[in-house]
Amino acid sequence: MRGLLVGRFQPFHSGHLGLVEGIRRRAPGSDLLIAIGSAEQSYTWENPFTAGERYEMIEAAVREAGLDHVAIVAITDIQRHAIWVRYLEGLLPSFDRVYTNNPLTRLLFERAGYAVESPRLIQRSRFEGIRIRNRLADGLSLEDRVPPAVARYLESIGASARLGLLRGPRGPLRT
Amino acid sequence: MRGLLVGRFQPFHSGHLGLVEGIRRRAPGSDLLIAIGSAEQSYTWENPFTAGERYEMIEAAVREAGLDHVAIVAITDIQRHAIWVRYLEGLLPSFDRVYTNNPLTRLLFERAGYAVESPRLIQRSRFEGIRIRNRLADGLSLEDRVPPAVARYLESIGASARLGLLRGPRGPLRT
Amino acid sequence: MRGLLVGRFQPFHSGHLGLVEGIRRRAPGSDLLIAIGSAEQSYTWENPFTAGERYEMIEAAVREAGLDHVAIVAITDIQRHAIWVRYLEGLLPSFDRVYTNNPLTRLLFERAGYAVESPRLIQRSRFEGIRIRNRLADGLSLEDRVPPAVARYLESIGASARLGLLRGPRGPLRT
Amino acid sequence: MRGLLVGRFQPFHSGHLGLVEGIRRRAPGSDLLIAIGSAEQSYTWENPFTAGERYEMIEAAVREAGLDHVAIVAITDIQRHAIWVRYLEGLLPSFDRVYTNNPLTRLLFERAGYAVESPRLIQRSRFEGIRIRNRLADGLSLEDRVPPAVARYLESIGASARLGLLRGPRGPLRT
Amino acid sequence: MRGLLVGRFQPFHSGHLGLVEGIRRRAPGSDLLIAIGSAEQSYTWENPFTAGERYEMIEAAVREAGLDHVAIVAITDIQRHAIWVRYLEGLLPSFDRVYTNNPLTRLLFERAGYAVESPRLIQRSRFEGIRIRNRLADGLSLEDRVPPAVARYLESIGASARLGLLRGPRGPLRT
Amino acid sequence: MRGLLVGRFQPFHSGHLGLVEGIRRRAPGSDLLIAIGSAEQSYTWENPFTAGERYEMIEAAVREAGLDHVAIVAITDIQRHAIWVRYLEGLLPSFDRVYTNNPLTRLLFERAGYAVESPRLIQRSRFEGIRIRNRLADGLSLEDRVPPAVARYLESIGASARLGLLRGPRGPLRT
Question: Is the ipTM of this structure higher than 0.95?
Answer without folding.
Answer: no
